[in-house]
């Protein structure tokens, strides 16, 4: 696969080195979008559908994915050499993964799929979710990842998860040159798991107190600037 791997964070924004998301400089909103037009980025959201999430937070997470999709400059077509495409996978038990929508740049498709997505309210096995995302979304026969695109995985999870296949999943992420971002919500998180799925990059882990925080401009703008 294409992509620049975890080192892709170097040079993003106005800095020359990676930094904590909390210390990104503030830039005009239009610049956030402009940065996303300079290269192809395929973004796969992996949403933890465990019972710890809760129905209300599930809806807030859906709105977050929709707002991110609205903010990004989406590709004009699947083979567009620039701009962004988005996918969403909700993971639950070891055999319980739900692809809400594959990689797409069609905002209408994204909105309709999000509106019909249902909360799993199940267990949490992030390793199985990662493997499924790689096999069914990244390598999918329909709308798989673009060959020369940066491949981003954005995790929405507290990291409290079963460890089955987690090491295999992390290995697969490295093999696919995945650039990870982790949005860890709440105070009760598993820092070890968060470190693993962020591939050991602490700057790629956003810690937020609740899902309402994801809608706040302070967080949202930093997040957009980070993935762009």
UniProtKB/TrEMBL annotation:
GO molecular function, one term: extracellular matrix structural constituent conferring tensile strength
Residues of the VWFA domain: 42-223
Bias (Gly residues) ranges: 1-14
Protein name per Swiss-Prot or TrEMBL: VWFA domain-containing protein
Residue segments, region Disordered: 1-28
Pfam family, one: VWA
């Amino acid at each position: 696969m294409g992509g620049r791997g975890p080192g892709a964070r170097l040079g993003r924004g106005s800095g020359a080195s990676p930094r904590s998301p909390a210390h990104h400089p503030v830039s005009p909103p239009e610049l956030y979008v402009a940065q996303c037009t300079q290269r192809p980025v395929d973004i796969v959201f992996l949403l933890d559908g465990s019972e710890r999430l809760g129905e209300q937070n599930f809806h807030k997470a859906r709105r977050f994915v929709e707002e991110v999709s609205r903010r990004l400059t989406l590709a004009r077509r699947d083979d567009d050499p620039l701009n962004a495409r988005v996918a969403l996978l909700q993971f639950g038990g070891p055999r319980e993964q739900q692809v809400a929508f594959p990689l797409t740049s069609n905002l209408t498709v994204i909105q309709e799929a999000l509106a019909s997505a249902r909360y799993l309210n199940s267990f949490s096995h992030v390793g199985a979710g990662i493997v499924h995302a790689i096999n069914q979304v990244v390598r999918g026969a329909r709308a798989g990842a673009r060959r020369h695109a940066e491949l981003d995985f954005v995790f929405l999870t507290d990291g409290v998860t079963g460890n089955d296949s987690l090491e295999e999943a992390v290995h697969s992420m490295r093999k696919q040159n995945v650039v990870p971002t982790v949005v860890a919500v709440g105070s009760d998180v598993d820092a070890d798991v968060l470190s693993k799925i962020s591939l050991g990059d602490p700057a790629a882990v956003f810690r937020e107190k609740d899902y309402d925080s994801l809608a706040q401009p302070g967080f949202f703008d930093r997040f957009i600037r980070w993935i762009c």
